[in-house]
Amino acid sequence: MPPNIPDGRVFGFDSQTFISVGVHLFNLAVLAFAMSKLLYSPVREFLYSRAHRIDEQLRRVRDEKAEADKLKLEYEGLISNIGLEREAILEEARKEAASRQNQMISDTDETIKRMTLEARDEIAHMKAEARDEMRQAIIDASMVMAEKIVAHSLDPQAYESLFDRTISDLEESTWWK
Predict the structure, then answer these.
(1) How far apart are CA 11 and CA 106, in angstroms?
(2) Which residues contact 1 (CB under 8 A, 6 or more apart)?
(3) How big is the chain by its Cα radius of gyration, in Å?
(4) Do the Cβ atoms of 146 and 134 come closer than 8 Å?
(5) pTM value > 0.90
(6) Where are the chain's structural domains?
(7) Comparing C-alpha atoms, which of 17, 38, 36 is closest to residue 28?
(8) Residue 1 pLDDT grade (very low, low, confident, very high; cuts 50, 70, 90)
(9) Confidence category of residue 7, pLDDT binned at 50, 70, 90
């Protein structure tokens, strides 16, 4: 045991103990003041920036969640409307097919009309040619018959007169118009 401490006591309350406690309290106060000046501001700024980062992350998470909810609703709407869109697309395709069918039918009708007109023109042209050929054949046959009849019944001068008159009549007359 130390020499100044009475028996049965752990330490004595003497002036030396008070001075020692005072010095320790002074050192503690100086140390606390120094630590507060040196560490308080950096620790406070670190905690403030950390709190700000956490708030920013929470805000971003809320914004992203709101955006995700919005997209979810939009996609659910699209999924629910997909049946309607499918029907609209099919209806549009049906209308387009009907339009093309009508166009093809009208094109075919026009082609048939054009071919019919061309065939009629061809037939009219062929009729005209046949009429001209028949007219020429009748004229030739008539001339042959007339020559034979006239050769047996007329003299050469009457024959010439009849022939000239027949030719002039044929030139003036119009055959099957």
Answers:
(1) 124
(2) 7
(3) 65
(4) no
(5) no
(6) 15-172
(7) 36
(8) very low
(9) low
